[in-house]
Structure formats: C-alpha cells, structure tokens
Amino acid sequence: MNIKGWRWRIGKLRSHRGYNDFACSTKEQRNVVNTISHCELKINQQVKIMGRELWLLRHGKSQRDVDMADFDRPLKKRGKQAAQRVGAWMKQHDHIPDIVISSPAKRACDTAQRVCAAIGVSERDVQLEQRLYFQGINEIKTVLAECTAHYRRVLLVGHNPDFEELLIHLVGLGNVPDVDKLLPTAALARLAMPDDWSRLDAGCAQLLSMTYEKALPG
Which residue in 67, 154, 169, 193 has the fewest CB atoms around it within 10 Å? Predict the structure, then answer.
C-alpha cells in the first residue's frame, strides 16, 4: 500500500465509532488507536524510502492598494505575522530545510526572511531565483533539477498559479484537497519526492501534508 492508501485507512479509522484520541478505555478503542499508529509508522517508513521532501510555501498576504509594480509589493502586517507563525510551526515540528530558494519579488523575499528567522536559518542563505517569479512550472522544475544530491529537504517560496499547478502536476489532481483555494497565502505544502531532483514526472510525488496558517493554534 502507498502513502495515499495508508492515509485513506487512517481517515476511515478516525471515523470509526470506537475511536477517540483521549479515551481508550475499551479494547475496541485501543485496537483502533493501535491500528492508526501502525498506519502512521508505515507512512513514515515510506517517506524515508523516498528520501527527499519538497516544501512549497506561498508568500504571505501582500498589499494591493499601493501604486507600485507587482514585483515590489510588500507584505501586509497580517502577511508578516502569518510568515512568522508558519516559521514557528516549522521550527516546532523540526521542519528545517537544507536550502531555501525564493522568488525575488519583495513579498516572497520578505516571507522567506521571516520564516528563516523563525527556524534559525540565516537570511543570507536564502537564494533568490528569477525562475520562481511567474515563469511556469517547467522553469521551477529546472530550478529543482539544479539542486545537488545532498539537498534532502528543499523549501521554495513563491507564487500562484505556478505553485498550485506544480503541486497538482507532482501529486495528481485526485490527490489534493478538494478546497476552493488549494494554496492560499502563507500555505505550506509538504511533498515526498523521488530520489532524483531532475526526474519530476507527473504523479511522481506523494502529498504528505497541507498546512494553512489560519488553522495553526494560537
């Protein structure tokens, strides 16, 4: 069974009438919880086999009511706070990338810098890449193809529609959440990738998680 299958099974188990995260007083409840733990172990094992992860982070909410070029639009106060919250969440879950590559647009750069500050990565380590600024998914794939083998976890910071299109291309339309906005501002998609950054065919990745800033606690 692949990661998608294990996650489907977890969803079915969580809807089981005997399941409760906190009250495992009956044998039935304990069996359901133990089976979920087994499924989660299988997912972790398959992620380790795949070996690499790609994280797609859309920039925070930016100002639109300003008379300036799209490239120069800064983050709103809300966008700055959202970037910090996502960074704090990443730090808490030990999601520390080996490399951070950002669109050079101001709103993306500002998002990358605030996330890096939260996770303890120097802002000077952020690589700016013009191909992440509305150049299409093929150009993004060339950026990833240039990542060396020792980069196991790559964080890209950029824009829609390119990021949503790349996500759907990599995992398949049927494997993404059925929501109105797949990647709203400050949303983070985490993907398990094949063991070669240069071979990113359609459907080659597994979607591990979608993190929405608005849903984070606190």
Answer: 67
3-state secondary structure 120-162: CCCHHHEEECHHHCCCCHHHHHHHHHCCCCCCCEEEEEECCCH
192 pairs with which residues across the strands? 53, 206
The predicted-structure confidence for 155-205, as pLDDT tens digits, reads as follows: 999 999 999 999 999 999 989 988 889 999 999 999 999 989 999 999 999
Packing angle of the helix pair 27-50, 3-14 (nearest 10 deg): 160
CATH 3.40.50.1240 correct for 51-215: yes
Residue in this structure with the two tokens 């984070």, named with its chain if needed:
216
Contact indicator for 61, 76 with CB cutoff of 8 Å? yes
pTM over 0.90: no
